[in-house]
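Protocol step 4 of 6.
Sequence for Exostosin-2 (Maylandia zebra) entered exactly as in the expression construct, tag removed. Do not edit the line below.
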Amino acid sequence: MYTSGKYSSRGPALIPRMKTKHRIYYITLFSVVLLGLIATGMFQFWPHSIESTADWTLDKRSVHDAPLIRLPVSSPIPERGDLSCRMHTCFDVYRCGYNPKNRIKVYIYPLQRFVDELGVPISSTGLSREYNDLLSAISDSDFYTDDVTRACLFIPSIDVLNQNSLRIRETAQALAMLPRWDKGMNHLLFNMLPGGPPDYNTALDVPRDRALLAGGGFSTWTYRQGYDVSIPVYSPLSADVDLPERQPGPRHYFILSSQTAIHREYRAELERLKEENGEALLLLDKCSNLSQGAASARKRCYKGQVYDYPQILQESSFCVVLRGARLGQAALSDVLQAGCVPVTLADSYILPFSEVLDWKRASVVIPEEKLSEMYTILKSIPHRQVEEMQRQARWFWEAYFSSMKAIGLTTLQIINDRIYPYAARTYEQWNNPPVVKWSSVNSPLFLPLIPPRAPGFTAVVLTYDRVESLFRVITEISKVPSLAKLLVVWNNQNKSPPEETLWPKISVPLKVVRTKENKLSNRFFPYDEIETEAVLAIDDDIIMLTSDELQFGYEVWREFPDRLVGYPGRLHLWDHEMGKWKYESEWTNEVSMVLTGAAFYHKYFNYLYTYKMPGDIKNWVDAHMNCEDIAMNFLVANITGKAPIKVCSWLCLVWVLKVCVGSL
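Step 5 output, structure tokens:
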């Protein structure tokens, strides 16, 4: 009782004294923590670089207000463009890093006015309207960042669109002075009018080290495939003239030529074609009776009759686009806008965005030496195909040519697809108008969670005349429990397949398909006889695989229906010493491909291989009778972003055991 009373009598008096004593301490501690939080927040969100605070946009800063930079005569000059550059040798992809949106970040340098020691500008025009529109579009896009430390790609605010307005040496010195230049690594230059008299080089003459070039007149000699981007020459008429879309179909003229600066030999040949074909061909030229100016640029004449340009282009099915002093011509853009099928005659010219656009669907390319045969060549194209090409030409213009914004963002998207190939746009997304929907069979990426219509797999055996070996393969495959059907593709047009009585007797349907041509691509054709989701492609000499091994391969495929599942493996890799791709066929621990001489895959890929893969690949495979397995591996990998799966046969297991024993 006493102790309790003592504690209760002192307690109330003790607590107030403790609050008073430590009040200053608590206030000080709280203030320190609060200031620390404020400082941390300012550090996180305050710009970390002087460069990042600068803004190139003309809306916020006039060109005349841009800082003046004088170039000493002794300023370093970059090396000329390295023709050996590729994305894996001259571009630092690690700077791009991983981000959830799979999108590169682009930094635009602040505006600066570069002059030499005498105060003469490096360009006679400064910043053109077209280049300003281009930079404005990029700065408004999701690619743009104002934080230089996050940038993957750098774009100078130095306008090099038109080489005619540049002082070559001084422009190169200005590029080398950019703070992040680093020999042009990860820098992108836009140029539409390269070269100058008398040679008119097909690429920008300004020394640029390793910088990527988006060029408007590349030839096969100057274009670095997979590194540079071929872009169109922008036509100012695109913004000034509104051409309503015209329905595809026959036009008043069959062929129309509207260019004014055509070489006299080409014009003489066109005039000869005009004499032979009369009103079917309209040959226009500059109007000599009109005064020079903007109005005359929109007029064309033929024997005194005046036509509005580019409106007259809509009156022809085909429009000629001939090379001039430069390979790239703005007329191509005008022709596409009019929905006229361009007939390009410019040897070695790299068509704009040809890395992703299938120009065979929208244009006709004819060698210059065959100009005299142009009418006959174009007449051989079916009317329905011409209509499809007219529709595709107009859509190409709307999507990729219609503005500097379209050109700039398309260029960045192509580079983005190279850096993030697993998230890249598909062939259909690049080439099919949004209203066109392609559907045939279900994509294995989005298969319904229900059993397939037909269980098991269909074995497709490609053969020519090895009958004895073929029969042995059929006999062995027929023992596989999951085999649903066996389809023999007879690729020999000079010899009939054996009589029905001679074929092995098996318990599943056996169908023989005779092809019209001896092509390797026949093995990947989507035959109507294939009713199962799973397909086993197998050669007629693969006799070493047992029925158990084939059944196991099918079970593996059922777990991974969006992949190639095969037996023989191969490896492709870049050989830095040789400077080229290397293909390994030896037994190694590394595998990047499986041979389609014995592989399971979803029948969906038959449709893609036959109808959606770029035609040049199939044509090369059929012409050389080789590499169809490489083509299929690359097709599946590009569609799914996934590697093939190698299944080990008993020979593989023996080899593995030998390796293991040898290492002990």
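Step 6, annotate. Residues 59-234+403-426 form one domain.
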